[in-house]
Design brief:
Shape: globular
Strand order of the largest sheet: 1-2
Number of strands: 2
CATH class: Mainly Alpha
Structural class: mainly alpha
Strand content: under 5%
Radius of gyration: 20 Å
CATH architecture: Orthogonal Bundle
CATH topology: Farnesyl Diphosphate Synthase
Number of helices: 17
Helix content: over 70%
């Protein structure tokens, strides 16, 4: 269980990160909207609702469109390879389409009724439309990349296809974990490395590939993105238990309600102390309950489980793991030659991922 002493993270340069995310969003959103316009009705409308461009009645809206970390990484990686940010835009759009394909399906599979503080697509438009629009976004990602990605599009498409397969593999294992009594820490890390790390790794390298970077550069950027993805997911796992619903847009104890075997949970169970043993007994009993029985739990029962996870050390371990992955991400690109401004943006984005509230 001991993976080294926790690493102290510096406070993120929020101004630099905000500028980077806004630049990535400004470059990517027009191309993303144009891509979605290719979809046939009603899929174009359903997708527009999902992205926050319209409300449930079809009126223009400006809902929270998410953090936009992946598009920012894609255009930044193009700059790391000496290309202009615009070169990375087809990659940014493709990655964002794949990411949102996964969100549409995840919300349905998990039964989540809220995303970004409003009803999810399946809740508003029905499960069939959520599935079809997700499938459409997945297909559209490859189309955009291959038709607009330039001479290196095929290399980029291979990386995106591999990342997407790993994302789906990770999601399948995540679901299977919910029906198991016990999951190991290393198993959980491998699952999260696929479910979250693979697409962030692709985002961090795809712009560079489109800009003509060699495999050494692309692989180093991919390694940065992989560890960043693991840090990102570790923080998500913390927020999934202890996050403020006003910031996360989800229910209190959201991951515990779904019996998710997230990092804090598996790390706590793996500990050798009384709280871990008590938690293990509760989770073993929980696994034998029907979904209806489990949903009848009151807030105190979820709070008890969260308290035991923290007492056993699961929260502290996960926080330390996020910081360790943060350091590993920055180490992966340490020897790459790139403009100082670009390197500082990679660093600021890594800091932001580890220190956030939603």
């Amino acid at each position: 269980m001991n993976r080294g002493a926790p690493v102290k993270s510096t406070a993120p340069d929020t101004t630099a990160v905000r500028e980077l995310l806004e630049e990535g969003r400004a470059l990517t959103t027009p191309a993303l909207r144009a891509a979605v316009d290719r979809l046939a009705p009603p899929m174009d409308t359903v997708a527009a609702y999902h992205f926050g461009w319209i409300d449930a009645d079809g009126r223009p809206a400006e809902a929270d469109g998410g953090k936009a970390v992946r598009p920012a990484l894609a255009v930044l990686s193009a700059e790391a390879a000496g290309a202009t940010p615009a070169v990375g835009v087809p990659g940014a759009v493709a990655v964002e389409l794949v990411h949102n394909f996964s969100l549409l399906h995840d919300d349905l599979m998990d039964g989540d009724e809220q995303r970004r503080h409003r009803d999810t697509v399946w809740k508003v438009h029905g499960p069939a439309h959520a599935i079809l629009v997700g499938d459409a976004l997945f297909a559209l990602a490859g189309e955009i990349l291959l038709t607009e990605g330039g001479e290196h599009a095929a290399r980029a498409a291979r990386r995106l296809a591999s990342a997407t397969r790993r994302l789906i593999d990770g999601q399948a294992r995540d679901i299977s974990f919910e029906h198991r009594e016990m999951v190991g820490v290393e198993e959980c890390l491998r699952m999260e490395g696929d479910k979250t790390g693979a697409l962030l790794a692709c985002a961090a390298s795809i712009g560079a590939v489109l800009g003509g970077a060699d495999d050494r550069t692309a692989d180093a950027l991919e390694a940065y993105g992989h560890d960043l993805g693991l840090a990102f997911q570790a923080v998500d796992d913390l927020l999934g238990i202890w996050g403020d619903p006003r910031s996360t847009g989800k229910q209190t104890w959201s991951d515990l309600r779904r019996r998710k075997k997230s990092l804090p949970v598996v790390a706590a169970v793996a500990a050798d102390n009384a709280a871990a043993r008590r938690l293990t007994a509760l989770l073993t009993a929980d696994a034998k309950k029907s979904p209806a029985e489990f949903q009848d739990f009151d807030e105190a029962e979820f709070a008890e489980r969260a308290g035991l996870i923290e007492e056993a050390g699961g929260r502290e371990w996960t926080e330390a793991e996020a910081r360790r992955r943060h350091v590993a991400a920055l180490a992966a690109i340490e020897d790459l030659s790139m403009p100082d401004r670009v390197r500082e943006r990679f660093r600021a984005l890594a800091d932001f991922v580890v220190i956030r509230e939603r």
